[in-house]
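--- STAGE predict ---
source: upstream dedup step, 1 unique chain passed
mode: sequence only
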Amino acid sequence: MSQRIGSRRLNLDFLKSLASNWITRCKRAHKAILVNALFLGGAVLLCQGIYMDTKAIIAQGLIAHSWQQRTADSPPPKPWWWADTNAIAKLKVARLDKELFIMRDDSGESLAFGPGHLAASAAISSSGHVMIAGHRDTHFKFLKQLKLGDVIETTSVDSITTRYQIKRMSILDSSAEELIIYQQDRLTLITCYPFDDFIPGGPLRYIVDAERLDS
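--- STAGE serialize ---
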């Protein structure tokens, strides 16, 4: 009888040891899979970020070339033959040595290549409230470097330059409040916020408000 009990205990200890080893291996395998998944995900995000930055830079270069070909009687030609958008103005911040070309609308296709003009707002370099939106991780990344008092210039296709001075910077929750289009002559730049958020599409917006300077 004692031999049978001893044998059973031995088998039980063996099974416990086997189960413990199996659990340890599973944990190690799970940890390895998790580490590899995180590494792969990070690599994908990095490559995607590099691709978006490169695309934005190249697009603005091609748009700059087409902008130089505009005349008093015609807008700039398409920056590339399959383009379904074009630039309608140039934006400049002298302090930051920053120049960008503004696309004709704020559709997803346009914003991939440059900041876009909000159609509901006033035309660029005209009287009224001009609004321009751009992506926080490419063209409008520089908005976080702006300061109160900075001067922003816009130049329309017909070479009319308008100067604005930054008066306010704020954060708006688009899920709770709407952007207001004012009657005064002013310029508003809009991008998503926070600037370094890994998850896009949140409700917060970074708003830069500038008032028109007397010419």
